[in-house]
From TrEMBL:
<dbReference type="InterPro" id="IPR001597">
    <property type="entry name" value="ArAA_b-elim_lyase/Thr_aldolase"/>
</dbReference>
<feature type="domain" description="Aromatic amino acid beta-eliminating lyase/threonine aldolase">
    <location>
        <begin position="3"/>
        <end position="284"/>
    </location>
</feature>
<dbReference type="InterPro" id="IPR015424">
    <property type="entry name" value="PyrdxlP-dep_Trfase"/>
</dbReference>
<comment type="subunit">
    <text>Homotetramer.</text>
</comment>
<protein>
    <submittedName>
        <fullName>Low-specificity L-threonine aldolase</fullName>
    </submittedName>
</protein>
<keyword id="KW-0663">Pyridoxal phosphate</keyword>
<dbReference type="Pfam" id="PF01212">
    <property type="entry name" value="Beta_elim_lyase"/>
</dbReference>
<dbReference type="InterPro" id="IPR015421">
    <property type="entry name" value="PyrdxlP-dep_Trfase_major"/>
</dbReference>
<dbReference type="InterPro" id="IPR023603">
    <property type="entry name" value="Low_specificity_L-TA-like"/>
</dbReference>
<comment type="similarity">
    <text>Belongs to the threonine aldolase family.</text>
</comment>
<dbReference type="InterPro" id="IPR015422">
    <property type="entry name" value="PyrdxlP-dep_Trfase_small"/>
</dbReference>
Length: 337
């Protein structure tokens, strides 16, 4: 199987499986798991925060962030296409009584800060209290510029908002920006990071922030059922993902660029290869036959997400030869039909 649906499909390496089998563990709810403690300390240091918290999922890390920054009856500003608005079951509203205030994302994935300013509610008993701006980097595979993120920081300081980053793919952003990840994290009060995507861990995410913030998140994680016991078996793989994963993401980006250039040769597909900045490629099927294409590829053991547009994601389990196989299968599909 060649799976281009997502970078979440990556399997743990033999080295990860060995580390998991041999992990020293304890009850993490008592704070006794040395492998979790060591991962959290390493992550806080690596990303430039006071503290870090290991969570089962990125969805939970984002929810903990929003609920730790905002109380009942308060609100967060986010992009209309933000993962923590659209794809997390409305958790902030459902479980946190925190109102989302979505703002249409710009073409580059950013939120226009002037639009954000207009969305901040006045201090008036009619309104929810605006507490937080939440950005996402990368968003739909697009990278927010460092200049923009620094302006967002200054904006939040001016209007007394906290600033959160859904950094599920922050290391893809750092690689594409040619900077250390701390150049990005330094703009934010809190950051969530997925270890289970392109970095290759089977399970796990991190939430980072100052010690008081992480203290609130620990209480909420317990409440939400995310406090795990001998989680060191997961943290052992997560540690390898965090230490080593970032060093190979440039390969995924190169494979995505190569795929985008190849897809641009297919007349039936509409794609601008210059829009592929990281490991996600979007192409529109001019004839609206995406579902048929998906079926034909699946018959050859190739999986894609046939939305409109079609999405292809490169990752450590699909190499250049796999991309060539995908391109050949797509070209054959359109030749034959
Ligand atoms: C995948 C993803 C998440 C959530 O990750 P899960 O671990 O699947 O819950 C959050 N934000 C973004 C941008 C993502 O891509």
């Amino acid at each position: 199987m060649l799976d281009f649906r997502s970078d979440t499909v990556t399997r743990p390496s033999p080295e990860m499986r060995k580390a998991m089998a041999n992990a020293e563990v304890g009850d993490d709810v008592y704070g006794d798991d040395p492998t979790v403690n060591s991962l959290q300390a390493y992550a806080a240091d690596r990303l430039g925060f006071e503290a870090a918290l290991f969570t089962p999922t990125g969805t939970q890390a984002n929810l903990l962030a929003i609920m730790s920054h905002c109380g009942r009856g308060e609100e967060y500003l986010c992009g209309q296409s933000a993962h923590n608005y659209r794809y997390e079951g409305g958790g902030a509203a459902v479980l946190g009584s925190v109102q989302p205030q979505p703002i249409e994302n710009e073409a580059d994935g950013s939120i226009d800060l002037e639009k954000a300013r207009k969305a901040i509610k006045a201090d008036d008993f009619h309104f929810a209290m605006t507490r937080l701006l939440s950005l996402e980097n990368t968003i739909g595979g697009k990278v927010l510029s460092l200049d923009y993120q620094n302006r967002a920081r200054a904006f939040c300081d001016d209007y007394q908002l906290r600033l959160h980053l859904d950094g599920a793919r922050i290391f893809n952003a750092a690689v594409a920006s040619g900077c250390d990840v701390t150049a990005i994290t330094g703009c934010y009060d809190s950051v969530s990071v997925c270890l289970s995507k392109g970095l290759g861990a089977p399970v796990g995410s991190l939430l980072l922030g100052d010690a008081a913030f992480i203290g609130r998140a620990i209480r909420l994680r317990k409440m939400l059922g995310g406090a795990m016991r001998q989680a060191g078996v997961l943290a052992a793989a997560a540690r390898i993902a965090l230490e080593q994963g970032p060093f190979r993401l440039h390969e995924d980006h190169a494979n995505a660029a190569y795929l985008a250039a190849g897809l641009a040769e297919v007349p039936a597909l509409e794609i601008d290869p210059s829009l592929t900045q990281t490991n996600i490629v979007y192409a529109r099927c001019r004839s609206g036959r995406a579902a048929e294409l998906k079926k034909a590829l699946a018959a050859q053991g190739i999986l894609i997400t046939a939305g409109d547009p079609i999405r292809f994601v490169t990752h450590l389990d699909v190499d250049r030869a796999a991309v060539d196989q995908l391109l050949a299968a797509i070209k054959q599909f359109y030749r034959q039909s």
